[in-house]
Sequence to fold (134 residues):
Amino acid sequence: MESKLTFKQYQNSLQENRFLGLECKNCRVYTIPPQAVCRSCGSQEFIQRQVSNKGIIKTFTVIRIAADGFKPPFIVAMVEMGQGAYLMGNIVGIEPDSANMELIGKKVEIKAKLVKGDLYSKDIWTPVFEMISV
Ligand SMILES: [Zn+2]
Fold:
């Protein structure tokens, strides 16, 4: 696979519900979304990889006062994806007021959602998490 991943390629892959990340050639830690340097060791040598669309909620918070253009309340979570990559996004499909610590450790499916641009940003594809019922 090609060794670089541009933000545009990442956006295009999200539109197709594929999740591309970068594996550090030095320490093997995965980074997603793409960045110029490895968050773990600072290397700039990467291999582009497809990452699993399943993950586990590691932590979350409920936003009740949101930035301009966002409608609270909503849940922001940090999800550990396959291959050790971490990804931040919103948990959708559950009522934010019902969120509690039992969410931690639960499995989610990662999907992509188009967020309309506002005064500060353009339209952007972003990952969202849906609970996997067991
Ligand atoms: Zn590294």
Remarks:
- Helices lie at 7-15.
